[in-house]
Amino acid sequence: MTSGAAIEIRDLVKIYRGNDEPALNSISLTVPHGEIFGLLGPNGAGKTTTINILCGILGATSGSVKIEGMDSRQHRDRIKQVIGVVPQDIALYPTLSARENLHYIGSMYGLGGKELRERVGECLEFFGLEKYARRQIRTYSGGMKRRVNLIAGILHRPRILFLDEPTVGIDVQSRNVIIDYLKQLNTKDTTIIYTSHYMEEAELLCSSIAIIDHGRIITEGRPAEMIGSQPGYTNLESIFLKLTGRKLRDH
Amino acid sequence: MNRLLASIKKELLVLVRDWAGLGLIFLMPVVLVLVMALIQDASFKSLEETRITMLFLDEDQDTLGYRVRQGLERQSHFELITGTGSSPFDEQAIRDQVARGNYQLGIVVKAGSTESIRARGKKLVEETLFGEYTGEDPAESPARIIIYFDPAVRASFKVTVRSALENFTSKVEAGILFQALSDELAQYLPEPPAPLSDQDGGIVYEEINAAGKDTEIIPNSVQHNVPAWTIFAMFFIIIPLTGNLIREKESGLATRMKIMPGNLFQVLGAKIAIYLAVGMLQFLVIVAFAKLAFPFFELPPLVLGPEKVALILLAFSTILAATGYSVLVGTVARTHDQAAVFGMISLIILAAIGGLWVPVFMMPGIMQTASAISPLNWSLEAFYDILLRGSGLRGIAGNIFALLSFFVVTLCCAVWVRWRMGRL
């Protein structure tokens, strides 16, 4: 199953109803297996729209998406089992405990019985939440909620994991735990597609990146190569600003 | 199946931890049914069971005034007040007291009323025997009884009191007229006539249940009100259920459900299953309360009759209709405010045109036609068929079919809206 690309996007276009400008304008992209792929861009560039189409949340206006060789329109149910998604929102039931939320989500992915209990326990322990597992989510801090949100995406051991700004608005400790876990996950051959506004974090984590703006991919490659190929630029953030401009993006 | 069970368990946990929602589902409807039954019990009771205080002035000081007063005092439901302390009211004082809202009703028997009735008798006899009447025409100064009403009094109360008074005074008037006729005729006939009586050959009224069934069910305020307000309460689930759907949308949980394996049937099926169970429990709580606790509030207990299976099936279909409608509103609405305001107002409109407050037969023609589109009306008519008309499952099958169809249609609309939203 790991032969070929994890994700193949061809000429992807998305035009929202009532908008003249396309949110995605003929994007093509290939993400090989085992990559940590960063999709970077300013607000409104099209990152979340791309992720949402890849996950099956949104339909594309035209173009094709293949996940592990499976067409996203024809094999939606099979693709759902293969991918994991960590949305930007804390998509958890606030009046349920972390354990109850995770048991529900795990059951939806077909886990059950001892396997589910052990997997939930193992993830909670790794993310330092074991002793708070019975507390309702609404009582958690922002960082704790983010960690449970991440566990919800990886509980069923997906082969491809989508993360939409997984570290936004949390403390340094929680961010470190998440980043460390993602690196560890990647060593187990999980492909990670990741969006973020934190360039330093992306530079540290991603094996390859694409910078997207106005619905188009404006550059793509390995972060180190990208920095090396631009004389006078020493980090990803400076290249990002060069390519996308310094103008404020209120979207 | 495992996914459906997991979803049901999750929905149950979400619901039982929402104390406000549970209060809305169980406590509020019981209070609503009790309060409405108590309030509306008075309007369903006959006049004999209600005591009305009224001001009274007899300017006539003759037979009509005397007998009206005597008659009213003899009626247990009228209490007459003729003045304050030793000073009697005059007409202006009565008018002022009623206008200020101190009393709802004032009656003045005008001077010369009895004389006017007697003159009518005299005129009738003389015109019959001699072809002409030489006295003063009684039509120029007719017998008059003035009724002063508080402007704040409801029209239905006015009509009830006035018709009771008219019914009573017409008997008094007839008595005076008969007596006058007898007295007049006695002057012209060689043999005095036998005394005329207004009591002979009176009309006898009999009240018979048109359903014509030998039933333990007696139509009363409880039999009318409990079904009406129970249906309203069942549709109350629109608040917690739309809230549940909107919360999922706002928090991103609805998006998570799209990402996860499983289908819409499992997601919505779990919600419908839970709210159906809760609705049935709510129905049983309200019915049990009306049956067992109403007597403690001096209300007659609810009588369910023999058609319990039909009742359960009707409640089941009503809750499904309420659930389907709630899912549709919760799917279309974008915010809590939209869902709550539209949900409640549309429910009130459907209840109003459905005949929950004013019986459909009392509505104007256009509203009677409109009532046919309200699922609350379909349910209410079926409850009345069972609880008042002694009907069975066969008699309400059409209504149950309509309610289930409403559920299917609203649910299909909700699924279509979700599908459309996913494509945008």
Give a structural overview.
With 251 residues, chain A is α/β, with parallel strands linked by helices. Chain A is built from 9 helices and 10 strands. Chain A has a single domain (5-244), classed as P-loop containing nucleotide triphosphate hydrolases (Rossmann fold, 3-Layer(aba) Sandwich). Chain A has a 6-stranded mixed beta sheet, sandwiched between helices. Chain B is mainly α and 424 residues long. Chain B folds into 2 domains: 2-44 and 216-423, no CATH class; 48-188, 3-Layer(aba) Sandwich (abc type-2 transporter like fold). Chain B is 64% helix and 6% strand. Chain B has a 4-stranded mixed beta sheet with strand order 2-1-5-6, with helices on both faces. In chain B, helix 3 links the parallel strand 1 (52-58) and strand 2. In chain B, helix 1 packs across helix 10. Chain B is elongated. The A-B interface holds A 16-17, 55-59, 77, 80-81, 83, 85, 87-96, 100, 103-105, 107-110, 112, 136, 152 and B 2-3, 5-7, 9-10, 13-14, 17-18, 251-253, 255-256, 258-262, 422-424.
Number of helices of chain B: 15
What does the radius of gyration of chain B come to? 31 Å
Low-confidence stretches of chain A: none
Oligomer: heterodimer
Helix and strand sequence of chain B: HHEHEEEHEHEHHHHHHHHHH
Summarize the main sheet of chain A. Answer: 6 strands, mixed
Number of strands of chain B: 6
Task: Give the % helix of chain A.
Answer: 25-40%
Give the biggest sheet of chain B.
4 strands, mixed
Tags for this entry?
heterodimer, A: 251 residues, Rossmann fold, 24% strand, B: 424 residues, mainly alpha, 2 domains, 6 strands, 6% strand
Per-chain topology:
The complex is a heterodimer of chains A (251) and B (424).
Chain A: E1 5-14, E2 24-32, E3 36-40, H1 47-55, E4 62-67, E5 70-71, H2 76-82, E6 83-86, H3 98-108, H4 113-126, H5 142-154, E7 160-164, H6 172-187, E8 191-196, H7 199-205, E9 208-213, E10 216-221, H8 223-228, H9 236-244
Parallel strand pairs in A: 3-8, 3-9, 6-7, 7-8
Antiparallel strand pairs in A: 1-2, 1-4, 4-5, 9-10
Helix pairs in contact in A: 3-4, 5-6
Chain B: H1 2-16, H2 19-44, E1 52-58, H3 63-74, E2 78-81, E3 83-84, E4 87-88, H4 91-99, E5 105-109, H5 113-130, E6 145-149, H6 155-188, H7 221-235, H8 238-251, H9 253-259, H10 264-292, H11 308-332, H12 336-353, H13 365-370, H14 375-387, H15 393-423
Parallel strand pairs in B: 1-2, 1-5
Antiparallel strand pairs in B: 3-4, 5-6
Helix pairs in contact in B: 1-10, 2-7, 2-10, 3-6, 5-6, 7-10, 7-14, 8-11, 8-12, 10-11, 11-14, 11-15, 14-15
